[in-house]
Amino acid sequence: MQKLKWKNFNLATKLSIGFGTLIAIFFLPGTMALLNMQAIQKKSEHLGVDLIPLAGTAYHLEHFTHEAMHAMLGFALSGEESYYTLAKEHLHRINNYHEQLDSLTRLSPRLNHFIESSQVIRLKIDEFTGLCHETALMNIRIRELQQVMDSTFGRFERYSYGFLIKENQDLREKILDHSTHINELVASHRLSKIANVIIDKGNISRIEIMKAIASKDHQLIMDVYQAQYRFIFSLLEEARKIADARTLRWLNNIENAVEYNKSLLFELSEAIHHSKRLEKKVEEVAFSALLDAHRISSESSRITAKLSSETIYLLDASTRFLILGLLLSFILALVFSFRITRAIVIPLEKSIDFAEKVSTGKLNVDLDVEQKDEAGKLANALKKMLRSLKKSNAARKKAEQQMLNSILETEQRERKRFAEDLHDGIGPLLSTLKLYINSLESQSTDHIRRKKMLENANLVIDEAINSTRRIANNLMPQLVSDFGLKVALESFCQKLGDTNAIEVELDTLGFEERTDQNTETMLFNTILELANNTIRHAQATHIYIGISRLGENLVISYKDNGKGCNIGEILEEQQDHLGLHNIISRINSIDGHITFNSAPSEGFSATIHLVQPTKQPLIHATNN
After folding, report:
1. Which residues contact 85 (CB under 8 A, 6 or more apart)?
2. Beta strand segments in 83-128, E
């Protein structure tokens, strides 16, 4: 039978053993503290059952009574219904909390001495509720009287202005009538002035009454009557003495309006005076209820504080015992947890050190962990990772060497093509040009023949220039350098389409900016290489080239409908198929990524992703 070893236990078992031991260690002082807490709980029950709820209920009762009083004061000052609505909500809460208060004082024998105070608060709450309702009704009556007075003032203004207009018309007619006696003119002028004064006094009265209503000053209303209305009556009496029958009708209408307004004025003064008394009464009753609720809250808080002090004393004694027990338990637990932690942390530290060395490129390292728990499994996984990393590193180096060979072979092939272009193109032209020059130096050449040789020499020079430009364009396409990738591809696709050998579709919608010249040249040469492969090997009738922006990335899509191929086999044949490897090398050199997709009889496609190439304004070519 295999001997059990601590290092071979898995992490869950170690933690279970550790936590089980800790629970056992803490159980003894915990049990002792629990027994002591039961005694504290019995002591605390007296607080939670009645005293603390009583203090909280009395506090809420006091708080919402105060809020209701302030809401009613706001309603009395502004007359806004929102204040009265808020006061009613507070009254509803006050009634609910008083029901709780009354229930607590009746059900708990220790709180029976608060019953009388609760009954007094009930009476004051009822009185406060009634006063609030009466105040609301009085405010409604004041607003109604104000509306009626506004209507009466409207009639007063119509009659007064009608009287003024009539008197002004009579005065103009009498002035124009030369037969009018001077006494009649004086009387008519006096009536016109009286009409103006009556209007002024009416406007002053209206403004003063509005001020009195806003400030609820009943004395100011009586002052308006004394100062303005009596004067208006005296003016009306004076006007009657010199008025004709038509004027008397106007004066009677004005006097009736003023009389009615006077009766409203007295009623409004009394309503405002009564409203002020109600406001004072509301404040007194609310404040009295506040004091009663505060007394209950203070007394219950005092008793609660006394019982809490006794409970705290017991709790303090229990805490001291618990601390001593826990301190001993903590020392034992610390020793045991150190043992568990060491068994876990040391293998993890070795694994971390191993991983850090591997991450810096040190692959010839070893990890010495003997445990068979999770830490040991982690170490074995890291060792397997190192072995895989070594294999991947070797494969990467091999791929890099293959890529380097491909680049060198491509460069050698380009040099060879460049040398052939110079030898087969520029060389013969220069040799021909030399022959023409040698012939021109001969003295036997006549004038006509010399002229013909010069013309031929110019033609040869033009051909040499064109060949040089073509060779340079093969090395660095001129359109890409001057006008960018989009214009160069448009020109290439147009020339390829003009041959009628294959249909070419170019989609550059949304691609309206240039990248750096090196990137554009690499992408252009890559597309030319793909198109050359299609024309030479694919037997295709259609090519699609698409360039678009996907966020900040450039995406190039290439597709043909040719016979397709096996991409895996082509990439494995290093010597015979350098084209795709050259394309991969080009795209990698500009930090891009290319994927191929093809199968026999299914065509060929390639997708290039270029991450955030530098954006430059697009230059459009124009035909001269």
Report:
1. none
2. none
Which one, of 17, 18, 7, 12, lies nearest residue 334 by Cα? 18
Tell me how long the chain is. Answer: 624
List the alpha helices (DSSP H) in 360-446.
374-421, 427-441
The three-state secondary structure class of 205 is helix
Contact 348, 376 (CB under 8 A): no
Alpha-carbon distance of 329 to 28, in angstroms, equals 9
Torsion of CA 153, 154, 156, 162, to 10 degrees: 160
Distance CA 453, CA 455 (A): 5
User: By the 8 A CB rule, do 554 and 613 touch?
Assistant: yes
CA-to-CA dists, residue 185 to 131, 178, 558, angstroms = 61, 11, 110
SS3 543: strand
Contact in structure between 277 and 56 (CB atoms under 8 Å): no
Q: Splitting the chain (624 residues) into consecutive groups of 10 residues, what average pLDDT does each group show?
A: 58 68 65 63 58 75 78 72 80 81 76 78 81 81 81 82 82 79 81 84 81 75 76 83 82 83 81 81 78 76 70 69 70 70 73 76 72 70 77 71 60 69 71 74 74 80 76 63 80 78 84 78 85 85 89 88 84 61 81 89 90 54 36
Is-contact 567 596, C-beta < 8 A?
A: yes
* Dihedral, 6, 371, 345, 331 alpha carbons, nearest 10: 10
Tell which residue, 361, 377, 359, has the closest CA to residue 369: 377
At 351, which helix (H) or strand (E)? helix 245-359
Integer CA distances (angstroms), 446 to 442, 449, 450, 451, 453, in order: 9, 5, 6, 9, 11
For tokens 């005296």, the residue is 234
- Positive or negative, the Cα torsion across 444, 448, 450, 456? negative
Main-chain phi, psi angles of 513, to 5 degrees: -145, 160
Q: Is the dihedral of CA 177, 178, 184, 187 positive or negative?
A: positive
pTM, two decimal places = 0.38
Encoded tokens for 567: 């991409």
For the record, the structure tokens of 574 come out as 């290093």
Q: Which amino acid is at 151?
A: S
**Do residues 198 and 235 make contact, with C-beta atoms less than 8 angstroms apart?**
yes
Name the region of 340 (left: φ>0; alpha: ψ -120 to 50; beta: rest).
alpha
Gap between the Cα atoms of 154 and 159, Å rounded: 9
Give the gyration radius of the chain's Cα atoms.
Answer: 55
| DSSP output for 430-488 | HHHHHHHHHHHH-TT--HHHHHHHHHHHHHHHHHHHHHHHHHHHHHS-HHHHHH-HHHH
Place of tokens 């004051």: 124
DSSP 8-state symbol, 500: S
The one-letter amino acid at 114: F
Q: Please provide the DSSP assignment of 293-334 as one string.
A: HHHHHHHHHHHHHHHHHHHHHHHHHHHHHHHHHHHHHHHHHH
Q: Which two tokens stand for residue 515?
A: 């990248």
